[in-house]
Each structure stands twice: as C-alpha cells, then as structure tokens.
Queue: 4 jobs
Job 1
Amino acid sequence: MGRYITTTGTAPTILKEVSANANAEVNDRILADSTGAAFQITLPASNSVLVNDTLQIIDVGGVAGDNNITIGRNGSNINGTAEDLIIDVNGAIITLVYTGATYGWV
C-alpha cells in the first residue's frame, strides 16, 4: 500500500529542481532553491494520495531561513493540522509520508 521513494520497483524517484511555485507529485525528490525568493510547493491533492506515499524536499540553496519555502497542504492535514508547513531552517531536508486523513502528511 502506498508509494515510496526508491531506486528500484515500479515507483521510481523523480528528481525536480524548482526555484518558483511548483506542484509536488508522489515520489518527487525536490531540490528547492530559494536563493532568489521565497516560494510555495503544493502537495498532491488529497484525493490522489495513498497511505505511505512519500516525497522529499531539500533546501538545496541553503537559505530557507531567509527565503522560506512554504509547503501548501492542498486539502490534506500536515502533522494533524489544517495548516501549511513553512520550511525556515537553512539546509533543511524534509521527508513527508502520507498517513491518512487524520494526520495527513507527517
């Protein structure tokens, strides 16, 4: 059940480089570069995800503390709350796993 980041199997990891607003998909490994400006990455729609679906966001520019990267919840909870997640730590690496409707992405 669910899809997860892997280098084998049927659900390959998809590497994306973003520096402006973008949409995440299951199994994305996103290299987020906010050196130019803060921006938002929107999670997959809540009706399109399965328990154990995974994605990863990496502050590749190392400046999320100054130019925050907002993770838009797109209808799902994040850590059990109906709020977006703000990455505001330089060099952060965030792995999100979908746990179901109650807690959403954790």
Note: DSSP finds no helices and eight strands in the chain.
Job 2
Amino acid sequence: CSSDLAADDARQCCEEVLRPACFREALAEMAAHRAAGRRVVLVSGGVDLVLAPLAESLGAELLAQRLVGEGDRLTGGYQTYEVLGDQAGDMRQAASKAAALARYAETTGIDLHASCAYGDSINDVPMLELVGTPIVVRPGRRLARIARARGWQVRRWGD
C-alpha cells in the first residue's frame, strides 16, 4: 500500500468517521485544557498514520503504534512506536502503554503528577495510575469499580 494513498485515506477517515464520532463533552474538555495552556496528548494502541489527522484536528500530540514502511510503501506490519526517535514501548500491553507515557513525559518534560489522563478501558488502569488526576470515561463494571475504590473521577459522555 502506498503511504501517500494511506495518508489521504486516513485524512478522509478522520473527517468522515473519527472526528464526527468524538463526544462533544470530550472536545469541550480538550478545548478547556488547551485554553488553560495544557498540552493534550492522545495515547492510543491504534496506528499513527490513521490517528495523526485526528490528533492534528484536536490540537493534540500523538503516541501510537508506528506502521512499518519500506520506501514509499507500507508493509502492513507495525512496531513499537517512536517517541522523539527512541523506542518507547509496545502499545499491545497495558503496562507498556503506561511505560510509553512515562517515557514520553520524561523526554518532553511533562509532570505526570500535575497531569490528568482519560481512559475508557480496564487496560488503561496502569496509565491512569501514573497521573495526579485519573478520569474514567463511560466505564464498564470492572473499571467503574476500580474508579470508585480509588476515588477517580468518572465522565458519562454521550449518555
């Protein structure tokens, strides 16, 4: 697959599918964070090529899997994504996602204790444990139980 064609498809997907699917409450909270001078970082197990247009449209930095390319072609494989040219961890494992965020924060000077993170999956718990203000979004039973036990904020966007 041509990387240029894939990038064009990703932009179209962002415009037609991803951006319209964003909860308006999420967009409002991101706008408030940006207005307060905070950095917004989208951390996802998805692939960078697909999520880059969304992150750009949200005014967010992006941590995601990196697709493997050879020349101007994508191979169909992916590998651990890069943070400022360094290997950050494998997003396929929740603990590694947290490790990748920790490494990114260290590399870029983000104070995680003064940061908030949003998560919607039980797999996000290790990442949420790293920040001063963990927020769960539309949690399932297990995540809701953990949030209650730890006193984490809960958002019910779109309900």
Note: The helical segments are 3-21, 24-35, 48-58, 94-108, 125-128, 141-150.
Job 3
Amino acid sequence: MTYRFIAFCEEIENFVMEIKAPPSATFLELHKLIQKNCNYSEQGNHQFLICDDNWRVKEKVHLTDSGSSALDEDLYLMESTFLEDFIEEEGQRIAYIYDITTKKSLLIEHIENIFGEKVEQAFVSRQKGFAPLQSSEEFTFISDKSIITAIEGNTAEQAIEELNDEDIIGSDD
C-alpha cells in the first residue's frame, strides 16, 4: 500500500504538492523530502502537528528533543516515528512547521490509500506552483493550538480545485 498526500499552503493559492510514501516511512524522511523539494534550510526544531478534522493539534512530532516537553507529554521524534503510527484513515490532517521562528506551515492531507501500489521511499509525484518562502513574512500562524482559526474549512480538495486538474492530478485519478 502507498499513502497519497496533498500538501498546500493557504496563503499561496497556486502551490500544491502531491507526495506518495510507504506507510513504513518515517516523519524524518517526509521532513527531508519537503526540505529538499521546497529548497528549505534547517532552521531549528521543525515539527509535524497531527491534527483532527478541524485542524486542532492532537500530537506533535519533533525533529529533535529540545528538552522543553512536559513530563506527562509523550515525545515523538521524526527519526523514530513512522507515518503508519499516526496515519489512521483517509482525510487525516497534518501541519508541517517549516519555519519555526514564524510558525509558517504547510498543510498536508492524506487523501488516499493506494492498494496494490508499493513504493520504497517517499517522493514528490507532482507539483504545481512555487513553494512558500521559508523566512519571509508572507503570513504567520497564530499558535499550534489555534491552527483552526487560520485555516478553518480549508481542505486538500479545495486547494486542488483552485488549480488546473490536469496539472496536479491525472485524468485517471
């Protein structure tokens, strides 16, 4: 089985990236793929925020242990946390904090389990538009706990609809 994700940014309407990954891929592999594909540099403790259907944060997956976690909080690190540990169903939502200083994020939605297709590693299968800049002040998220107020109602389907369907999704999809 292969996971199919759509990554998008609410503020950059013409940017959509499709990622395919095996369930056994780590969040570190996904992080490195995004960093490389978007030409981002390492600027701190990047995070994946595992969100509910309303983009409220349920769990955090950190790049490194900064030592600031509460004693009663589980600490998930990208290198030892697999996608299948948190990806439970289609529609699962994740925010990727790519600029920790300004809390700028890519929104990622798991849109499909592709049965019968097996990939060895995560890769960008399609992309349209330019990735948002890492260090500019295009937009700033409020806080991890209030992502919903910044992106309420936004879905991968809405991001894709704003684009030319042939550019990101083949006619067979």
Note: Residues 136-153, 168-173 have pLDDT under 50 and may be disordered.
Job 4
Amino acid sequence: MTSDFDIRLSIWLFLGFIVATIIGTLTHECGHYLVAKSFGYDATLHYGSTNWRPSNANQNTNHSSFWILVGGPLETMLTGTIGLILLFSFRKSFDNITKLSFRQWFIIFVSLFWLRQTANLVVWIGRYVVSGNYSFRSDEIRVAKYLQLPDLTFSILTAIIGAIVLTIVIFKFVPAKQRLTFIFSGVAGGISGYILWLVLFGKYLMP
C-alpha cells in the first residue's frame, strides 16, 4: 500500500480539503443567511455562524426561525446530493482508470459536502467523552428539539448517510491506487482546514 502513496497528489488533495472545509463552512452559513433574508430578517454572516433578528416586531419568529435553522444543513446536504448525482451521471468515466482528472476530483469534493454531517457527530461525541458537556449548539439537535424528537435523531441519521456517501466515493469512484493518498489527505486536510479557519484565522477575516 505504501508504494501507492502519491506525494504530489497528496499535497494537492490536502490543500483541496482545506479549501473545501472553508468553503463548506461558509456555504453552510450562507444557507442560514439566505433563508433569514428571505423572511425579512436583519442577518449577518460570520466565519462560523450566522446571526439574525426580526426587522420589525410583527414577524412570526417561531416558524421562520425553524426554517432559518434548517437552511444551513439543507444547503450542505443538497450540495452533497448534487455532487453524488453527478458522480453517478458520469460513473462510466470512472471505470477502469488509475488516476482521476481535475473534473472528477472536483465532483468528488462536491459530493463530500455530506461529510460535514458525519464529522459534526464525531466531534460532538469526542467533546462529550472528553469534557462530559452535552452541547445543544448543533443545528441538527436544535431542529430535533423543535420537532420534539430525541436530540440526536437527525445528527445520527445524517451522519450515517454521510458515512455511506464516503464509502461509496472511496470504493466506487476513487481508483484503488489513489485510495490511501485520498484517505490520508482527507483526514489531514479536513482537520487542518477546521483548525485554520474555525480556530485560528476565520475570526479575524470574518469576525
């Protein structure tokens, strides 16, 4: 397996995952932002969050706040679904090849927007195990609470779908000789993107 590790490809994929993590975070927040604006709210977009408030005292905040909350995850999952549809639409071009083109990698990255759902649950579980704190900040938990369902209903369901999408991508669309490089670069790039944007620099660039 080590002989199949492509250093040059790894660097490009590593950088790609960093960029994708940042773009995925911002487009997710744009989902909240656009729905809020469509309801006439005063909304502001930040590096890792969206704030909104009624522009007048007569707005139905209960109903609209629910859809604003849904807007972020829905954007993420819709983008990932479009990527997955494109993968299957062009699936014949993935047959019997050893290296993927830029366009093929791009479609794979779009489909992996679904990974946000899986990563979020993994991070949530990790924080709970380490600190013992039960966080209610997740969009999915807040949606479940609004619908009076068990807190982790949507977190677990969408995380499973994200894991299924990742499995399909790895074993159906990424050539065997590029899988090790892809997996290593994905883990390293995803973690680095999270740290670089959400921990280090995002708060200064988009406070």
Note: The first strand starts at residue 42 and ends at 45.
